[in-house]
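Handout, page 2. Input:
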Amino acid sequence: QVQLQESGPGLVKPSQTLTLVCTVSGGSIKTMNYYWSWYRQPPGKGLEWMGTIDYIGSTYYSPSLKRRTSISRDTSKNQFTLQLNSVTPEDTAVYYCARGNGVKSYNYRGQGTRVTVSS
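Output:
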């Protein structure tokens, strides 16, 4: 069974770049028809899709975050990475990586990592 584990800093200063890594085990990120996504959930709010990288490396982004977001992958490490630029306190959230069969869907998700943006 696939497992996903997020890693990264728990605290980021405003205007900095947040970088999170998702390490995948139990399956290859190159497996056909699997899509690998990042989501986040700010305190008291719903789950927000941020973006997806698919099995051939194509990327898809939320229109509201596209200008600040980049998703990449390292197939040798079976990892994919989220970069969010110019963070503000509004980017404080629990961030999740996930696997699904489409751009905005998932059936497996990591436990999440809490990120606070504060000076």
